[in-house]
Specification:
Belongs to the helicase family. RecQ subfamily. With 380 residues, the chain is α/β, with parallel strands linked by helices. The chain contains 14 helices and 13 strands. Strand 11, helix 13 and strand 12 form a beta-alpha-beta unit. The longest helix has 17 residues. The chain starts with a helix and ends in a 7-residue tail after the last helix.
């Protein structure tokens, strides 16, 4: 507990800070005590300021969102959190529901279209009653028209004034996607143009609603675009370094090229597979994820080759396999020790026990490099 800092606060803010500390401690069943930057960021949003949180991957930005929901005593209050990836939605829903005991659901194009489900969980427009969920984690595209020109169900709700009254705040996790995915860059169209249109949602919602962006990667030119898209001029910034004392950066010169598979032998502990550290390798090419995984598997003793110790992961694989591979790598009891993945696993997804993170080749940007590197040693 940051007592010295707490004692410098005005009494009203000190009380608020202690409330956040107690909520975080009891909601996590004693496993988490909010740190200073988390309390500062939560207070800014609680006081209805637009705010930007820039903190390294794995630093605890999710707890900030949880604290604000827990402090709101209204059973009808609703928090919207915008995320870029379905995989990230799955892990975040599990975190909020199981760890913080906050009723949370994901809204994406896989969500049931059943009226009863929406009326019970989200909002009933006919009876004007709130659903049971207190937290909606949504993909950006659900806030706009579909490719066929139809309004999504959530889009219709967001335009309804009765639903708007329930919204306490809007969070945008991985807010750097506004720039990297929502803007035209290098002569190419936006990869996900909905991210560049969030100012339209900001204009629809009441001005009283604070918006908070959270990211690990926000150089000045990215922050400028984010500000123009979603923030008022008086927004605040809470900043924490992306470096952590338990990580070391290193470069390794490959022989021949990235497709020479023997370059990756150093990450496999063949002499003692039982002590194999968890290694996460990122590749730009999906074909290379498979080739490296098969090559490293071939180096294992024959009796271990079908045990799933080495797996590969990319977006073209079946949802069932992706869930299996992710769980086998992230679970404490999972058998997978080396995961060869594409960038789908680099953004925001929680890897709590990775010893070594490898980026094969030069990263396309510092932002991408920090996202990849932030997967390491998140339990330390």
């Amino acid at each position: 507990v940051p007592y010295l800092w707490l004692n410098t606060l005005p009494i009203s803010r000190r009380i608020l800070a202690y409330r956040f500390i107690l909520l975080g401690y009891y909601a996590s069943r004693g496993s988490q005590v909010p740190r200073r930057f988390q309390i500062e960021a939560a207070m800014e949003s609680y006081e209805d300021h637009d705010s930007l949180v820039i903190a390294g991957t794995g630093s605890g930005k999710t707890l900030i969102i949880a604290l604000l929901i827990l402090l709101n005593g209204s059973p009808d209050g609703l928090t919207l959190t915008i995320l870029p990836l379905k995989r990230l939605q799955i892990t975040q829903v599990a975190t909020f529901c199981l760890h913080y005991r906050i009723n949370t659901i994901a809204i994406n194009d896989d969500m049931p279209h059943d009226d009863n489900y929406w009326n019970m969980m989200v909002h009933n427009l006919t009876t004007r009653t709130a659903g049971t969920a207190r937290h909606l984690i949504i993909t950006t595209e659900q806030l706009f028209k579909s490719k066929t020109g139809h309004l999504s169900r959530l889009c219709r709700l967001v335009c309804d004034t009765r639903f708007q009254k329930r919204i306490d705040r809007v969070n945008i996790d991985e807010v750097h996607f506004i720039y990297f995915a929502g803007m035209k860059r290098h002569g190419l169209d936006a990869f996900r143009p909905a991210w560049g249109c969030l100012k339209e949602i900001k204009a629809i919602l009441p001005s009283r609603i604070p918006w908070q962006g959270l990211t690990a990667t926000c150089p000045p030119h990215v922050e400028c675009v984010i500000k123009q898209s979603i923030f008022r001029d008086d927004y605040s910034v809470t900043r924490l370094t992306s470096n952590r004392p338990n990580t070391i950066y290193a470069t390794h010169k490959v022989v021949g090229g990235l497709d020479v598979l023997d370059n990756y032998n150093c990450f496999l502990r063949r002499s003692d597979p039982a002590s194999q550290p968890r290694v996460l390798l990122f590749f730009d090419l999906t074909s290379l994820t498979r080739r490296v995984a098969l090559h490293l598997t071939s180096l294992l003793p024959i009796e271990l080759r079908d045990k799933g110790i080495i797996l590969h992961y990319h977006s073209l694989m079946s949802p069932e396999y992706l869930v299996h591979a992710h769980e086998q790598f992230t679970s404490k009891t999972g058998k997978c020790r080396i995961l060869c993945a594409t960038s789908a696993e680099s953004t925001g997804v929680d890897f709590p026990d990775v010893d070594i993170v490898v980026k094969a080749g030069l990263p396309e940007s510092l932002a991408y490099s920090l996202q990849c590197g932030g997967r390491a040693l998140r339990w330390e």
